């Protein structure tokens, strides 16, 4: 890589780090201050769960979209949700969902 | 480090393992793409080590390979990552003050944020720092190792186990579903969350994956503020 390209990498890395760290430190300082500004603004606390929902939406698209992979996604999600409703934890539902998703994809591949 | 801290670090590591279902295939792909764009293995690894932000790394390498001006490459990379601005403030009240956040926040990716936002409030205060350390470090190290492996053996791996690259990423939607499901507490939240998920899916399918997360969250927020239910009719 040329020097210019290394500088671009470092600028991108520093900028990304600042985007992550500055708002965090700002909020910690705000929460610890005596000026009365010690609550998280409502819009930020609402955006938190919505960002997670958005990451879910983005990750729903299969690697190779097609009828089979979409069907496997729907079945896998249903199994994950049913397992979550039963145990209310993360590990088992995720393992069950991935296993069923994989079984559907491999089953169809073997049958085809 | 005390025995209790080590246990919390290991707890963070254990609970971040489902994230690897998404991290491994994507980092392998990044290593492969970076090599195909003319970078060496160590250059690709340096990008993963220093920038550590999936979508923007692909954009960075793609724009460099296409010969775009470097100021534009940096600007676009930062523009894609600007959504991370709201992640830190959402975690700030659960994490103790420490000078280590200056470098530890480097590990605050979309996935680590989602996991931390769900788990931190459930953990005892004394465990939170070590838990975050374990979860964030595992994800970061796997991302870098995945890039190196993808760069050196990506083609051989994807040729040998083509389905594995399709199955492992399903761990991410499955994990995020278990994080979002408990937040369907009333009709207002159910509507806002459903609107966000549907918008994100729509934007991704129509090729706007780079801006899908902030745009979809904005759609959900508009929905949250615009649609209100009568107090008696808001329960699910």
From TrEMBL, chain A:
Keywords assigned by UniProt, alphabetized: Membrane, Transmembrane, Transmembrane helix
Name of a matching Pfam family: AzlD
Transmembrane helix in keyword set: yes
Entry's transmembrane regions: 6-27, 39-61, 67-85, 92-111
Protein name: AzlD domain-containing protein
Automatic annotation (TrEMBL), chain B:
Transferase as UniProt keyword: no
A Pfam family this chain is assigned to: AzlC
Membrane topology: Multi-pass membrane protein
GO CC annotations, alphabetized: plasma membrane
Highest taxon listed in the record's lineage: Bacteria
Subcellular location: Cell membrane
This protein's record includes keyword DNA repair: no
Main location: membrane
Transmembrane residue ranges: 28-51, 58-80, 129-149, 161-181, 211-227
Entry keywords, A to Z: Cell membrane, Membrane, Transmembrane, Transmembrane helix, Transport
GO biological process, one term: L-valine transmembrane transport
Protein family (similarity comment): Belongs to the AzlC family.
Annotated PANTHER family: INNER MEMBRANE PROTEIN YGAZ (PTHR34979:SF1)
Name of the protein described by the UniProt record: Branched-chain amino acid ABC transporter permease
Organism: Vreelandella nanhaiensis
Taxonomic lineage of the native organism: Bacteria, Pseudomonadati, Pseudomonadota, Gammaproteobacteria, Oceanospirillales
């Amino acid at each position: 890589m040329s020097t210019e390209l290394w500088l671009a990498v470092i600028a991108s890395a520093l900028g990304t780090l600042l985007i992550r760290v500055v708002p965090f430190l700002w909020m910690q300082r705000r929460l610890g201050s005596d000026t009365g500004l010690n609550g998280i603004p409502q819009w930020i606390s609402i955006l938190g769960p919505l960002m997670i929902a958005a990451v879910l939406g983005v990750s729903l698209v299969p690697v190779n979209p097609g009828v089979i992979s979409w069907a496997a996604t729907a079945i896998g999600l249903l199994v994950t949700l049913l397992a979550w409703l039963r145990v209310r934890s993360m590990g088992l539902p995720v393992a069950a969902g991935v296993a069923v998703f994989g079984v559907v994809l491999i089953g169809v591949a073997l049958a085809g | 480090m005390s025995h209790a801290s080590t246990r919390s670090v290991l707890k963070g590591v254990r609970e971040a393992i489902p994230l690897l279902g998404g991290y491994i295939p994507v980092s392998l792909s990044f290593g492969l793409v970076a090599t195909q764009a003319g970078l060496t293995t160590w250059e690709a690894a340096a990008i993963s080590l220093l920038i550590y932000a999936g979508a923007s790394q692909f954009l960075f390498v793609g724009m460099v390979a296409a010969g775009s001006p470097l100021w534009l490459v940096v600007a676009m990379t930062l523009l894609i990552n600007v959504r991370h601005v709201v992640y830190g403030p959402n975690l700030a009240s659960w994490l103790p003050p420490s000078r280590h956040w200056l470098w530890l926040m480097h590990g605050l990716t979309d996935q680590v944020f989602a996991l931390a936002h769900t788990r931190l409030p459930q953990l005892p205060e004394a465990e939170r720092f070590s838990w975050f350390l374990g979860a964030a470090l595992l994800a970061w190290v796997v991302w870098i190792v995945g890039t190196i492996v993808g760069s050196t053996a990506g083609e051989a791996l994807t040729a040998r186990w083509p389905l594995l690259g399709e199955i492992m990423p399903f761990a991410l939607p499955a994990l995020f579903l278990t994080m979002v499901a408990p937040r369907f507490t009333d009709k207002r939240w159910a509507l806002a969350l459903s609107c966000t998920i549907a918008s994100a899916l729509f934007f991704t399918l129509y090729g706007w994956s780079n801006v899908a997360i902030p745009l979809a969250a904005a759609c959900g927020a508009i929905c949250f503020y615009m649609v209100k239910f009568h107090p008696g009719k808001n329960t699910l």
